Amino acid sequence: MSLIAVEESKALVKSPGNQLIKRKGKRLDIGLLVTIFVLLGIGLMMVLSASAPSALTYNGDSYYFFKSQAKNALLGIAIMFVLSLVDYRIYKGRIADLMMIRSNWFITTHFCPWHWCYEK
């Protein structure tokens, strides 16, 4: 490896776009985290702007769908941080089992004739 390539790789690690936060031996990518939160914020704004009139008409609260979506977003962020603490290598050799569980969950929740439970 040439001296120029070594200097470029050092500069790449130190550049602001590739900032990493160390926590208990793990690294958290700030660029990815900022991207996730920006997209989450844009999505929440879109839900609010698109659903406010219908939520006000049907529920009496123009923030009804926004509150629901924000609650689910906070739950997703919490799950994301908990799963970031798990070493991803433990899934090696268990992928087929996890995919089977996920597939069964999808089929059960989306294709079973449980719609009669929710009819009014």
Strand content: 5-15%
The helix/strand class is: mainly alpha
Helix fraction bin = 55-70%
Low-confidence sequence ranges? 5-9, 11-18
Overview of this structure, please?
The chain has 120 residues and is mainly alpha-helical. It has a domain of 70 residues. 67% of the residues lie in helices and 7% in strands. The chain contains four helices and two strands. It has a two-stranded antiparallel sheet with strand order 1-2. A hairpin with a 2-residue loop joins β1 and β2. α2 packs antiparallel against α3. The longest helix is centred in the middle third of the chain and has 30 residues. It starts with a helix and ends in a 9-residue tail after the last helix. About 11% of the residues have low confidence.
Provide a quick synopsis of the model.
This protein is mainly alpha-helical and 120 residues long. Helix content is 67%, strand content 7%.
SSE topology:
Elements: H1 3-14, E1 20-23, E2 26-29, H2 30-59, H3 64-84, H4 95-111
Antiparallel strand pairs: 1-2
Helix pairs in contact: 2-3
Which labels suit this protein?
2 strands, 4 helices, 7% strand
